[in-house]
Amino acid sequence: MNVFSKLIQDMGSLWQTYGSQYLNGIKSTLLLALSATLIGCVIGFICGILNTIPYSKKDSPVKKFFLCLIRAIVRIYVEVFRGTPMMLQAVFIYFGLPYFSNNAIRFENIWSAALLVVSINTGAYMAESVRGGIISVDPGQTEGAKAIGMNHFQTMINVVFPQALRNIMPQIGNNFIINIKDTSVMFIIGFTEFFAVHKAAVGATYLYFPSAAIEMIGYLTMTLAASLLLRWLERKLDGDNSYELAADDQLIMAAGTYNHPGTPFKEQSKEFDEKRGR
What we know:
Blueprint lengths: L1 H50 L9 H22 L3 H15 L9 H27 L2 H9 L4 H31 L11 H12 L2 H31 L31 H7 L2
Helix pairs in contact: 1-4, 1-6, 1-7, 1-8, 2-4, 3-4, 4-6, 5-6, 6-8, 7-8
C-alpha cells in the first residue's frame, strides 16, 4: 500500500507541475490524429477508386497501360508505407528531403511535417481497406448502374461508396485509434504531443514510472472515448432495426388490401380479414 500511495503522490506532484502541458499534449495528439485520419481517408478513397477502375481486352492499349501504371504506383506506395515503421518514415521525410535537396526542400513547420507523415501512413492502410470495401459490394449494383448509363466515377460516388462506407467504417475507427497512439513517435522530429510532454517531465524530475502511469491513463481514456463515439456512429449508420409491416400501414393502397369506394367490389382476401379480426 505504501508503494501505491507513493505512486499516487508522485503522479499528483507531476500533474500539479506539468498538468497544463499534459493537457496541451493531449490536445495536440487528438488534433493530429483526427486531421491525419481524415486526410488519410481521402487518400485511401482516391487510391481505392484508381485501383479498381476496370478495363477489358477491348480497351485501347493506352488506357490499359496507364491503368496498369497507376495500379503499380499505388501498390508500391501501399507496400512501402505499410512495410516500414512510422518513426523511420518521419525521419526520412523530415530529415531526408533537406539532405537530398541540399536544404532546398525543408519543413519550416513541424506540425505540417507530422501531419504529412501520419496522413500518408494512414492513406496506405486505408487504400487496402477501401479496395476491400468496394470489392465487397455486390457486382450487380455496378452492373445496374452501368445499365442506366452511369460512368465509373458516377457509379463509385452514387452507388458503390455509400454501401462500401458502412463496411469500412470499423477500419476507419481502428485507424483513428491507432493514430492516437502512433502519434507518439512524432517526438523524433520535435513535435510536441502527449508523449513528448512525458519525456520532458521525466527529464526534469526523473519520475519515469509515475509519468508513464499518467500517459497510460491518458491514452486509454482517449481510445475508449473514441471507441464509444465510433460505435455510436456505426449504430446511426445502421439505422432503425424496428420496422412495421407495410400491410399494417393504413396509407398503403396496394391491390388486394382495400375496397373500391362507392362500388360493391371487395378486393380484400379472406386471410386479410381474418388477420384484422373482421
